[in-house]
Amino acid sequence: MTESAASEATLERMLALFDVAPLGPDRFAGETDAGGHAGRQVVEGSQILAQAMVAAGKALPERPAGWTVRSAHALFVAVAVPGEPVELGVETVRAGRSFASAVVTAGQGGRTRATVTVLLDQPQPDVIRHDQWSGEPPAGPEAAYPAEMPMRGRQLRLEGVCDHGSPDETGPPVLDAWLRYDTVPGRDDLRRALLAHFTGHLSISAAMRAHPGIGTAQAHHTVSTAVMGIGVSFHDPVTWDGWIRYHHESTFAGAGMAYVRGQVLTADGRLLASFTQDAMIRALGDSAASVPAGSRL
Description:
297 residues, alpha+beta, 13-stranded antiparallel β-sheet, 15% helix, globular, disordered C terminus
């Protein structure tokens, strides 16, 4: 991969990364990149999560209706390096008539980088249903600020937040991000992978917003941050047209960690997915002294 290709993120490239290739029974290979972050030598954990979900669906025995990923829970145990493939081994725990489960181990260079537990099923008719947003009505994407997180084929806007990484822009530990993709994948597994991918992007920023003097612009300079775990559950039907909203709320930060829960919704308030994230937020060396006392995590 050339440096220019590695530094430009596109929707087409991202979907190709998710669509892992078989290496043999229950083994798949996935390409990696840095998600458009020039010079960054870390693969986003949510990229591996998306690949693991696709691998699990491909590894299971075929069913006439196919398998649908219902939930996935990932732990990121070591950094993966962009530009080198990851190998995904799928261990099927059970494949019954209605439900299946698998554990996916993502490795690189002979070392485990992540483990992902995946629950799959074959959706059935509703017995009961509630799937609508019950909070305050959002202002909407037209009133939101364009955000600097470039990807060709995707628009991103933040509601009420000009700069999500700024240590000076504070407020409640909540972030609403509006996304619009030029193309929505036709395949169900890639739509779910696409939704899962963005769950790892803004949760740490949401946690830091409540604390003056600290923001993700300082990450890897004065504070060390990392996504340690993501859990995502999908709520059928996982289809949309136009804008979707990622609602992030950090309910806890302390002891060097932060916890965020979130929802993914259509523009008219239908719930597509729910997610949680555990993240590390720790000082680099003696840099804790540079963070205001009231904001230290």
